[in-house]
Write a structure and sequence with these properties.
The chain is an alpha+beta fold. Strand 3 and strand 4 form a beta hairpin. One of its GO terms (molecular function) is endonuclease activity. This is UPF0102 protein EV685_0653. It comes from Sphaerotilus mobilis.
Amino acid sequence: MSLFKRWGSGGKAQGPSVDRPAATPLQRPGMAAEDRALAHLQAQGLRLVERNYRVARGPGRPGGEIDLIMRDGQTLVFIEVRSRRAGSRHGGAAASVGAAKRARLILAARHYLLRHPDPPPCRFDLVAIDGDDSQALNWIPAAFDAG
């Protein structure tokens, strides 16, 4: 089985979630958050390269998924989108990206970069959405690095 497991349009950039397979009720809020993040980032000048890039690691070992892969000029940007409902007792959306999640994102990014013989400069951004308020979207460029 291939290390690369892509969903959607065969690895091509996709627009809003209406272009993607039907979501379960549990997936819908996350897809809506990704749509909001995508629209915000495109309004800031970033260009979509790929969406929901997934890597499988094997039985019992979680792989990684990158919500959005975009270009900011010459920089390739791997973007994690996190959302939390208003009044969540589990901390804000930004605080929900712990060390294990960062490691899975880095793993997926490294696998993605295997397709590029001369990879461009890269960074990891975070889009945190707290509540349903449109003002609650927080884009954090270079939120962490691959160390």
